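Readers outside the structure-tokenisation community will struggle with the description of the input data as it stands. What matters is that the chain and its backbone geometry are given together, residue for residue. For illustration, here is how one protein appears when written out as sequence plus structure tokens:

…
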Amino acid sequence: MDQCHRTYFPATFYLLAGICLLLLTSPVNGWRPWPNQKPNTTDLLYSPSKKYEGSSDLIKLKYHMGPVLTANITVYPIWYGRWSKSQKRIIREFINSISAVDSKPPSVSGWWKTVQSYTDQTGANISGNVHIGAEKTDRSYSHGKSLTRLSIQSVIKSAVTASTTPPLPINSKSGVYLLLTCDDVYVENFCQDVCGFHYFTFPSIVGYTLPYAWVGNSGKLCPSVCAYPFSVPDYMGRGFKAVKSPNNDVGVDGMISVIAHEIAELSTNPLVNAWYAGDDPIFPVEIGDLCEGIYGSGGGGSYTGQMLNGEDGATYNMNGIRRKFLVQWVWNHVVNYCTGPNALDQ
């Protein structure tokens, strides 16, 4: 698909085809407490005996021969809007914790080992080295406070082509361009169908094909949807109670799991032609989608699974360098079920 964009057609085709693909592509549509939503795919696919941590013989995750991120991964954060220093520290520490092998177990780096188990066609594994590179901050909301999927690409273009400040490096082989929108920015379909998504930029818009992800801060707009289980919608009833967030910021703590979800999927399927289930690359089901909402042993359906509680009463399931985080599990293609470092059988 990417080769067709580069080789055979004029620039006008790039733009039209790119726009069509972007509009058709399904973002992360895993389990969230959407109003009137039917049970998630684990409820529909699995009998009671198959609900343990999302395991199923019915899921066939396949490798479609596309590239994955096997070289050292560099994450380039783009802070869109007004972010506090403390919020930035929480997110930076999570990203840095992916490669912090000396963190106390269960650890973020232990969670990443499942992602590392994925390979390309040469047998090379996803890189275990994930670090933060150059960053950009856009406190002036230069593209407005309401973004579409296409204008998200324009924000990234501004970051990599900046002239008044140093631009972000162009790194199409191992770069992850992470656009983070603050809590007063609305992105197309945010809170309604999606909390974050990943894709790749179009040369016709940005000038390069760059893997990117967007994640929004739902703290003001919809914490009960995108920061669940730190906030719970009223319609779920008294049986569902919110848990305390580990870093005392419901919006940012909710973002952490979505960021993890997107970085894991972007690393294993950066151009939407590598690891996914199903036959349609326009609507791929990826390693994070298959485990949406599962944070511990026994998770499935609308049950998060068994998590941990800190001395301060906060709920988490893995340790970073100095902080604790609650991060969803990811699909393990070797054992064919969702896995995480806090599994009770480890």
Summary: Residues 2-339 form one domain. The mean pLDDT is 86. The radius of gyration is 19 Å. The first strand starts at residue 61 and ends at 63.
